[in-house]
């Protein structure tokens, strides 16, 4: 769980999701994560946007890592996917 | 966004395009708070979007109400009036972009672009404005909220 508040800085989202801050900024620039641009380098992610993003990530098919007979490579890919809140 | 709205204003949208537009607005607003969409079965050209922010269990700090009225002209739907309004629940004050008849500004009853602004602890006033799209209005109003800026009407030009 994380502290619930109206807006989050990209760095906070990075901490919550375990991703690198530059990855979060990339998601913002690509329009995959909603953020309000307050100045040239300052963004704020709305609470609802973060929740939606995390929910979408939870719906990704990470269950593949539990499939019997999955290859080592497949398991590794699934574990990588598990760490990522957003699919490619 | 401006282009899309200009198309809607001057050329209009087919029924499918209008439906698509409202879906776009709904999806766009839903990530900014708790959204309620209201339609009118008797008026397919009307939609109202009420957004409470931040929503999702947190105390409301800002409310946004966006209403659009579209008229059917030949086979297309054209924007005929709108109200894009916000209320600051933390510091007080209201700010909105409106386009609807304003008798004092135009006794003929034609829609008039104007801003309705009430600073925290102050009186509400009507100010000159221009056409904005719903998403443009939302970005401006929501950005002010996100930045924690107090509603300030001092830079606006009164209509009368």
List keywords for this structure.
heterodimer, A: 88 residues, alpha+beta, 3-stranded antiparallel β-sheet, 4 helices, 47% helix, disordered C terminus, B: 160 residues, 7-stranded antiparallel β-sheet, disordered N terminus
Task: Put the structure in a nutshell.
The complex is a heterodimer of chains A (88) and B (160). With 88 residues, chain A is of the alpha+beta class.
Commentary on this structure:
- The complex is a heterodimer of chains A (88) and B (160).
- By secondary structure, chain A is an alpha+beta fold.
- Helices cover 47% and strands 12% of the residues of chain A.
- Chain A has a three-stranded antiparallel beta sheet.
- In chain A, helix 1 packs across helix 2.
- Chain B has a domain at 20-125.
- Helices cover 25% and strands 39% of the residues of chain B.
- Chain B is built from three helices and seven strands, in the order ααβββββββα.
- Chain B has helices at 2-11, 15-30, 134-147; strands spanning 34-40, 43-53, 62-73, 76-88, 94-101, 111-118, 125-128.
- In chain B, strands 1-2-3-4-5-6-7 form a seven-stranded antiparallel beta sheet, covered by helices on one side.
- In chain B, a hairpin with an 8-residue loop joins strand 2 (43-53) and strand 3.
- The longest helix of chain B has 16 residues, at 15-30.
- The model of chain B is unreliable at 1-8 (pLDDT under 50).
- The A-B interface holds A 4-7, 34, 36-38, 44, 46-49, 51-52 and B 30-34, 53-58, 61, 142-143, 146-147.
């Amino acid at each position: 769980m994380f502290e619930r508040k109206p807006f989050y800085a990209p760095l906070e989202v990075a901490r919550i999701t375990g991703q690198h801050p530059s990855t979060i900024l990339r998601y913002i620039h690509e329009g995959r994560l909603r953020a309000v641009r307050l100045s040239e380098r300052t963004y704020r992610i709305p609470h609802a946007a973060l929740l939606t993003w995390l929910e979408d990530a939870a719906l990704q098919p990470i269950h593949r890592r539990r499939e019997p007979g999955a290859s080592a490579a497949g398991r590794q890919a699934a574990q990588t996917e598990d760490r990522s809140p957003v699919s490619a | 966004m401006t282009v899309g709205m200009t198309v809607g204003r001057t050329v209009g949208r087919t029924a499918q395009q209008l439906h698509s537009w409202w879906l776009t607005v709904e999806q766009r607003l839903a990530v900014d708070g708790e959204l309620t969409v209201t339609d009118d079965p008797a008026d397919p050209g009307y939609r109202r979007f009420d957004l409470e922010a931040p929503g999702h269990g947190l105390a409301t700090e800002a409310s946004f109400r966006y209403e659009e009225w579209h008229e059917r002209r030949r086979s297309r739907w054209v924007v005929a009036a709108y109200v894009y309004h916000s209320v600051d629940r933390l510091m007080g004050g209201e700010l909105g972009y409106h386009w609807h008849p304003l008798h004092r500004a135009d006794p003929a009853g034609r829609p008039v672009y104007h801003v309705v602004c009430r600073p925290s602890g102050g009186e509400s006033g009507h100010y000159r404005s221009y056409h904005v799209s719903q998403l443009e209005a939302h970005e401006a109003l929501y950005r002010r909220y996100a930045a924690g800026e107090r509603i300030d009407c001092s830079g606006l030009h009164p209509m009368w």
